[in-house]
Amino acid sequence: MKTIQKLTISIMAVTFLAGLGGCSGMSKQDKHTVAGAGIGGVAGAALTHGSALGTVGGAAVGGLIGHETGKK
Q1: Dihedral class, residue 61 (left if φ above 0, else alpha if ψ from -120 to 50, else beta)
Q2: 8: which of 22, 46, 54, 59 lies 20 to 30 Å off by Cα?
Q3: Which pTM does this prediction carry?
């Protein structure tokens, strides 16, 4: 993998993890949605070699899955 792609994925992961600190007032379902979107975005970027469309698509699918798994 190219160095710039590794750097991009690392920055996205750090930003995602730092953003989780602001989730204390969120419901369980909201937390699952955010986590799914973050994981999906990183996975989409990795699988499509940094493609913006792959990143956004992965985040959308991950957010949807996280939203559904967070239901009671």
Answers
A1: alpha
A2: 22
A3: 0.66
